[in-house]
Amino acid sequence: MEYYPYDSRKALYRSPYGAVKENEKVLIRALLHGDACVHSAFLRMSNDGDGVVHEIELTPREWLEGYRFYDAEITLPEGLYWYDFRYTSDYGQFFVVKERGGRGIVSESDGAKWQITVYDASFKTPDWLKGGIIYQIFPDRFFASSAEKQNVPNDRYICGDWKTQPEYRQNGEKRRLGNDYYGGDLKGIEEKLPYLKELGVSCIYLNPVFEAHSNHRYNTADYMKIDPLLGSEEDLRSLCKAAKKQGIRIMLDGVFSHTGDDSVYFNRYGRYGDGGAYNDYGSPYREWYKFNRFPDDYSAWWGVPSLPETNEDNESFSRFITGEDGVIRRWLRTGVSGWRLDVADELPDCFLDRVRNAVKSENKDAVLLGEVWEDASNKISYGARRRFLRGRQLDSVMNYVFANAIIDFVRDSDAQKLGETVETLLENYPEEAVHLLMNHIGTHDTARALTVLGRRDGYIGDREWQSQTRLSSEELETGLKRLKVAAVLQYTLPGVPSLFYGDEAGVEGFLDPFCRRTYPWGEENADLLGFYRELGKVRRKGKAFIDGEFNLCLASGDLFAFTRISEDAMAYIAVNRGENPATVTLLPEFEGKTRTFGTEIQNGVLNLPPYGYSVVTK
Question: Which residue, 165, 242, 285, 465, could crosslink 265 as a Cys pair with Cβ 3.0–4.6 Å?
Answer without folding.
Answer: 285
